[in-house]
């Protein structure tokens, strides 16, 4: 029987792994060496959660306090380093991994904020920040404009996932299914929007 | 009758709005979509205050804890998105908005640091950090060298505004007028220096 | 007689100075004005320690709480500004200064983490973060890919220095010599690896 606590940690570690894989894959594509792969995978995997925990005042952050996060990030880096062709055979792997991490961290970040007593609006924002932080640092470190700015439906997808968590709590629904629904909503919206080329409105003046 | 507490919050929210407007305007000029505008406006509006509060250990930061900051940042983003030509008709709007935010955050950041018991020198530095943080993140996110580095009299203007606050407190002057004098000094110095093309010394060896 | 506490602060301030000098030298080379030199020197000198202290929840960070850090960073900026040719006559000055700062901060950061009760693995990671944080911010501010990603043996050198500290504590060795050995190991490995052009393995697939 999976408890709720186990589910939340599992989602968070899974987000750490897929973001780490996205960072490691970007690093290999750029021809970085093993240490560059470790750094970029670590930044992508851990930065979002670190930002979340620092903003909540929950220091030291889980990434430092709970050894599993580090080991998972390390595993993601080594997987990207050693099995690059396998990862690369996925359809648009960086996009898909990044979308999964986005949904997972939006949901776990929002939930942790609610647990710490932040109000719903602030909790949604913290979910979005946790979700976009790791990917933004990954992209900035290789001096690319982060995809949260370049890409259509991205911050919105994270926001939808976090909003599902807030709404589910407000309606008193069972938390486990709500968390999974949030991940599916956020990651699904992100992936579908890329594959279908959905675009968001631009300012009529731009 | 305006109390001092009201004045400080009003200055801080005004800084949030004008920095948000500067971020939103940069985003519209770059042709980003509505979510990119929200992200860049939010980053410019809130990052300086978040850095300030995290460094003071005042977590969660006001940007998350007090709903008005989020709403003001959102309003700035929507204003930039919808009324870009109006904003753009201002003289050098990004520069002017950025200069106003610079002065407002230098003053409120320095005051908050003094309140938390930091010594005068550290309080001035924290004022400067709050003032330059949001604009620096805005510029980094679109991979531009932040104007704190590119531009002459910028960090200096923030430093002057913060120093006015410290000096006013040291001299026991009425705090309301001192805060406003600090904003006028910092923002004014910044704007005049751009319009008159003042420049700071370069290393004789550069 | 030098006490251990004095030695640790001395190493930390020395790291602050050499990182500040590296930031100031980069700024002068780029033709930035005096305020740009101050900002880049300050960012390089102080960011690593600030990240370390924020992650440990030790706020306000030493860089704000202890005036010596600010004064040392200021001194480094002015030295770079005024004596650029002297600094520049050193062999690859930015690399050497950066390597020294890397070793010094890896060691003091790891030690501070152990003192705060983090486990060995997390303490090594925090040492690495303190060591690479200042240089990464310096490089990002001028929109360069940070050398922690560009360069071979860099994060590894910091990791070796931090590991020496953890191992020394585990073996119960006298702390003073262990700290110095860690600095020598990290900075030495970094410098030798650049001079000898050592390279780290790349992914067979990159």
From TrEMBL, chains A, B, C:
Q: Name one Pfam family in it.
A: Gly_transporter
Keywords tagged on the record:
Cell membrane, Membrane, Transmembrane, Transmembrane helix
Organism of this sequence = Rubellimicrobium rubrum
What is its subcellular localisation?
Cell membrane
- The name on file for this protein is Trimeric intracellular cation channel family protein
Its ancestry begins with: Bacteria, Pseudomonadati, Pseudomonadota, Alphaproteobacteria, Rhodobacterales
Mention any one GO cellular component term assigned to this protein in its UniProt record: plasma membrane
Superkingdom assignment: Bacteria
Q: Which residues cross the membrane?
A: 6-28, 35-57, 69-87, 120-141, 153-172, 178-198
Q: Which family does it belong to?
A: Belongs to the UPF0126 family.
